[in-house]
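Researcher: We're teaching a course module on how sequence relates to structure. For the next exercise, students receive a sequence and then see the predicted structure as C-alpha cells, so they can try to spot secondary structure elements on their own. Here is the exercise chain.
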Amino acid sequence: MQVHNFVAAAIIWSVASMCANAAPLKIVKLQIKEDKAHYSLEVSYPRTGLATVDRAVEAWARKLAREFSEAAKDPGSRETPAWRAELTYEVPRNDGAVFSLAFTYSSFTGGALPNSSSETFHFLLPDGYRAELAEIFTPRGIARISAISIARLKRDMEEAPDLDWIKRGAGANARNFHSFVLLPEQLVITFDAYQVAAYTAGPQEVRIPLTHIKDTMRADVRAPAASFDCKVARSAVEQAICSSRDLARLDRHVGEAYAGTLTWAEDVKARAALQQGQRDWLKVRDGKCLKAAAALVSCLMPVYQQRLAVLEAA
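Model: And here is the predicted structure for the students to work with:
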C-alpha cells in the first residue's frame, strides 16, 4: 500500500508538472489605504479573475485591515507614536498548476518593537482549491518535515540556538508550517519571529528538496484529511468526519490547535485543565449529535467551530 501511494503521488505530481506550461493567472494589484491622525494602513493584495482565489484572498486581507483600523481608531490615553501597518505580497509560483501567494504583514502598535508575521496561500488550479500542508503530505511527511526543519535550524541559526524553543516551534504539528510555499523542486517553510528563536534572530527560512519528502505526499490532496487516519475510522462520528472534506479539516485544525496550545503551556495546572477540557469536549462531541438524531456532519460542524474558537483564544 505504501508503494502504491508513492506511485500515485508521483503520478499526480508529474501531471501537475506537465500543467506548468498552462497560462499563468493574470494579476491586478489592489490596495486598501488609510492615512489618519492616529494610524496609517496600506494593504496590498492581488486579484486574478478566478473567483475562488479572489474571494478567499480578499476576505482575508480585508478582515486583517478592518481589525487593525478598528483597534487603531481609538487612541485612548496612549502617548505612543501613531500606529502603522503594511501588508505586502509576492507570487512565488504561478505556473498553471499552482498559484501561490506569500504575504508579509508588518505593524507597529505602540510596543517596544514592531511586529511581523507571514501567511501563505497554496491554490490548486484550475479550480482554485486552497490546499493545506497536511492535505498535501501525510502525518509521516509532517514528522519528516519537522525533523529536517529542526536539524537545519540548529545548524544554520547565527545566534546560539535554544533547542527546546526550536523543538516546540518546529515540532511535528502542521500548524507550525502554516507559512509554506511548495515549488516544483522544493518546499520552503518560513518561521515567524519568536516562533523558533528570539525576536533578534528574525524570521527563519528552511528549504527542503522535494526529493527528501516526495514519498510522503498524499495520493489525493483533495481527499478528507482528519486528525486521525480515516482508513481506521470506526465510530459513526469518525465516519462522518471522514465523509466531509470541510469537517475533516476542522477536526484536524482542532487537533493542531490543541496540540499547539498544550506544547506552549508552561503552567502544570493550565496543562491539566486543557487536557481535561479536551476530554470533556470529546465526550460532548461524541454524544450530542447522536442523541439528537441529527445529520452528523451538519451537527458536528458548529461543535468543532466552537471548540476551535475556545482553543485559539486560550
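Model: If you want an answer key for the exercise: Residues 230-313 form one domain. The chain has a mean pLDDT of 91.
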